[in-house]
Specification:
The structure holds two protein chains of two kinds.
Chain A (H helix, E strand, L loop, with lengths): L2 H32 L4 H11 L3 H18 L1 H10 L1 H20 L6 H31 L13 H4 L2 H25 L3 H31 L2 H4 L3 H21 L3 H23 L2 E3 L9 E2 L7 H28 L9
Antiparallel strand pairs in A: 1-2
Chain B lengths: L2 H40 L2 H35 L1 H35 L6 H30 L4 E4 L2 E4 L2 H5 L2 H31 L4 H36 L1 H7 L12 E8 L4 E8 L2 H7 L9 H12 L8 H30 L7 H10 L1 H16 L4 E3 L3 E2 H4 L6 H32 L16 H5 L1
Antiparallel strand pairs in B: 1-2, 3-4, 5-6
Helix pairs in contact in B: 1-2, 1-4, 1-6, 1-13, 1-15, 2-3, 2-15, 3-4, 4-6, 6-7, 6-12, 6-13, 7-8, 7-11, 11-13
The chains are: A mainly alpha, B mainly alpha.
Chain lengths: ~325, ~475
């Protein structure tokens, strides 16, 4: 395996890790409005993600840093090309991140309410915009011979990308619900599991539409005639298993399944992209690929050593922190 | 307005705003970690109360530091795509290591530190606080390694018009980093210390929780004094190093147009005429510039005009003189307030030792106002560093004008600048308001649950 190939996989892993982890805290964030009925329940929900959400978000920051280091051209083209999308995404992340922390220092209902809305809206917009971004990436965008992307509004916002955005929102929502099922007791817990049935139906429809549009709007089925249908099938399978496990009150397995749905979805996008990293709609010759977008051999080999050394520690203490805070959060009183 | 100018304005606003909270976080968590350690060692409840109280100030600051930090990371690609292409091979690596090594550590152990108190033994909580503190400093190390490369490129080659890393260790042993890192860290520790001292002084005036705030105040002043000297010495090292790496920045920060005499006078203040490239008048202190530049009372310092000529021969036609007035005055503001911090901390420790601090109302008031000093000095220092490097983003290799994204329009940047700036203003107001409320309530107030108090009413401000 060449170093650019390895780094493509690592970046895919970082994004998969991000969507898996932050996925459930995006879901919990949205559910503070959709599921919780009062202040105490909202607090109960937020407590489940309290010790983790910040570190979960670092997966995205690390993915961004790794993109910059390993594929500077990918980083430069994508971030400048999707400028406005990233501006709104950043505002959503800012609102959400500050609100989750500042809500601890707030007492009056008026301001609690304000922060809760920031959390809910931020937690909806962030996965939605990222879903749009990734869907748009596999659709292809106008990239010229200087690797510069001159996108227009319809390059980011079209039927397919909106469905893609909603799919990621729904995946996060389901993942949040199974997480709440796993991490709480009391009324929210029961309500989460019953809401799960309904959201799963919507997700299922969403995924079918998404799969159909993927067939129409991308070349994923052509370039990966095997992997794409298999992974889509795996998403459908984990979705069905998720419903079954949730209804059998096997919360750990239900959470695993909702997580796997996310893993397979994101993996499908990255496998479909490979070895391209950004697809040009102007001319395939202008595609950004793992070779023309990558850093030099030396940088990649140093980065590999650093990552191989540090990642075990990072994973170790993150898993340890999940172990420390493994107990379910009970309702107040 | 053109894209370049707007992008620069947005970058400046974001960075300055971000860097209010970074040093405050580094400084406060360091003190909090000391308090947690004392709680483990001395087993006195008061240290736990101190850690919890000052921990609140840290968390309020850290949250904003984190979210604006993500913006910082994305901004390179968004607004400076050409810079990212040119520099990614070198610049991306420290950024990625920063995330892997520092951000994961900070964010995970902040969770453990806040939420783990009733689940884990005391020493593990103290250890978590230290890991957060070390994380914040490691983060500073890597981002400053990246910044130092921009000031003084090392360990690379230009291949096909791009900077390509050839020696990773050279990034970490960059002479610029060795002076920039301690200077920044001491500045950050002083920032945390001055905030703790100012809030303590406020409570001395109110004559509340005297024991609690005495301990906090003394700890803060010791850190402030040590940091103050650290800032001064590392600052001097940095000035000496500038003579080798960026003499133009040095000359601009001194308003020195012509080459100096030997020994060189230091200009205290001057009326700079940028258009005619001269100073209308100036007040000089003999020998001082030689000392600043070389650490001895001899040696001439080259002026901007001869450096301009030298650079034109080296890099071709162009204006290589940075905005002189900005660099000149920001240096004076930084150094002046830096000196003031040393004086204030000496005075604070002296009064505290004499046990008269609580009666010195004028000094307590001054301490409250002094909370602003480190923030001003930090900002001025970075303005000098970054504006003084202009017109370059990577000194000698890549200019700011070359760096900007070609596909982002002025309208887009205007939209983002307005949006981000509005967000910063709101965040700043909320953060200052909440920190002030923490300060006013003191450590022993349980959370008030009276839901009828309007936070913006007069009653709310009394407490």
């Amino acid at each position: 395996m060449s170093l650019p190939e390895l780094w493509f996989i690592l970046i895919a892993v970082l994004f998969i890790g991000f969507f898996f982890l932050e996925g459930f805290d995006f879901g919990v964030g949205m559910l503070t409005r959709l599921l919780a009925k009062n202040k105490d329940e909202r607090t109960q929900l937020l407590t489940t993600i309290g010790p983790f959400w910040d570190a979960n978000e670092v997966w995205l920051i690390t993915a961004g840093g790794a993109l910059f280091a390993a594929f500077p051209n990918w980083y430069a083209t994508m971030f400048s090309g999707y400028y406005t999308l990233f501006v709104i995404f950043l505002l959503a992340l800012i609102a959400r991140g500050v609100a989750i922390e500042y809500i601890h220092h707030t007492e009056t209902d008026k301001y609690l309410n304000l922060w809760h809305w920031c959390i809910a809206i931020g937690s909806f917009l962030s996965p939605f915009l990222l879903g749009m971004l990734f869907t748009s990436l596999i659709q292809g965008v106008p990239i010229d011979e200087t690797m510069t992307m001159y996108g227009t509004f319809s390059d980011f916002v079209n039927a397919y990308s909106v469905v893609g955005g909603l799919a990621v929102v729904l995946l996060s929502l389901v993942h949040g619900l199974t997480y709440i099922g796993l991490r709480t007791t009391g009324p929210v817990h029961d309500r989460a599991l019953s809401l799960l049935n309904k959201v799963y139906v919507v997700l299922f429809i969403g995924l079918v539409v998404f799969a159909a549009l993927t067939y129409v709007s991308t070349d994923l089925f052509i370039v990966r005639p095997l992997a794409t249908p298999i992974l889509l099938g795996a998403v459908v399978l984990t979705t069905i298993l998720g419903i079954i496990f949730a209804n059998k009150r096997r919360e750990g397995l239900a959470f695993t399944m909702s997580g796997l749905s996310i893993v397979f979805t994101v993996a499908m996008l990255f496998i479909g992209l490979f070895p391209r990293v950004m697809i040009s709609t102007i001319d395939p010759a202008f595609n950004l690929t793992i070779d023309n977008a990558a850093s030099g051999e030396y940088t990649l080999s140093v980065m590999t050593k650093v990552a191989v050394t540090l990642l075990p520690f990072v994973l170790g203490y993150q898993i340890w922190s999940y172990y420390v805070f493994r107990k379910r959060i009970h309702p107040k009183n | 307005m053109d894209v370049l100018l707007l992008a620069r304005i947005q970058y400046a606003i974001t960075t300055v705003f971000h860097f209010f909270f970074v040093p405050l976080s580094i400084g406060t968590i360091f003190l909090v970690a000391i308090m947690e350690t004392l709680y483990v060692v001395k087993k006195k409840e008061i240290y736990l109360e101190m850690s919890k109280f000052w921990g609140k100030v840290f968390l309020l600051s850290f949250a904003i530091g984190v979210v604006t930090g993500i913006l910082q990371e994305f901004q390179f690609g968004m607004n400076w795509s050409e810079y990212s292409r040119f520099m990614g091979d070198v610049f991306g690596a420290p950024l990625a290591v920063e995330a892997l090594l520092a951000f994961f550590m900070e964010s995970t152990f902040i969770g453990v530190w806040i939420f783990g108190r009733d689940k884990l033994p005391k020493w593990m909580i103290a250890a978590s606080a230290w890991l957060v503190s070390i994380g914040t400093m490691l983060s500073a190390l890597w981002i400053l390694a990246a910044n130092s490369f921009m000031q003084e490129p090392v360990g690379f080659e230009i291949i096909d018009g791009k900077a390509v890393l050839t020696d990773f260790m050279a990034l970490l042993t960059n002479p610029q980093l060795l002076v920039e890192f301690p200077h920044t860290i001491f500045g950050a520790l002083a920032t945390g210390a001055f905030v703790v001292a100012g809030i303590s002084a406020y409570n001395f005036m109110k004559k509340r929780h005297l024991d609690f705030f005495r301990k906090s105040f003394n700890m803060a002043m010791v850190v402030a004094l040590i940091s103050g000297f650290g800032i001064a010495f590392s600052g001097h090292d940095q000035a000496k190093h500038l003579m080798e790496s960026q003499p133009m920045k040095m000359a601009a920060s001194e308003g020195l147009w012509e080459d100096s005499e030997d020994p060189a006078d230091w200009t205290l203040i001057a009326d700079i005429d940028v258009e005619n490239q001269e100073n209308n008048w100036q007040i000089d202190i003999p020998y001082a510039l030689s000392y600043l530049a070389y650490g001895k009372f001899e040696g001439a310092v080259p002026g901007m005009l001869s450096l301009q000529q030298e650079y034109e021969e080296k890099y071709g036609e162009g204006n290589y003189i940075p905005p002189v007035k900005t660099v000149f005055w920001s240096f004076r503001i930084m150094a002046g307030f830096g000196g003031l911090m040393v004086l204030i901390s000496m005075l604070g420790l002296w009064y505290s030792y004499r046990r008269t601090i609580e009666q010195k109302t004028w000094f307590l008031k001054a301490l409250v106002v002094s909370i602003a000093i480190p923030f001003i000095a930090n900002t001025a220092g970075w303005i000098m560093t970054e504006i003084g490097r202009q017109p370059w983003t990577v000194m000698g290799y890549y200019t700011t004008a070359q760096s900007v994204s070609p596909n982002v329009t002025a309208g887009q940047v205007l939209f983002s600048t307005i949006s981000f700036t509005s967000a910063y203003v709101i965040l700043a107001i909320v953060m200052i308001y909440m920190t002030a409320r923490v300060a006013k309530r003191g450590p022993y107030v349980e959370q008030i649950t009276d839901e009828n108090v309007d936070l913006l009413s007069k009653e709310a401000f009394k407490s």
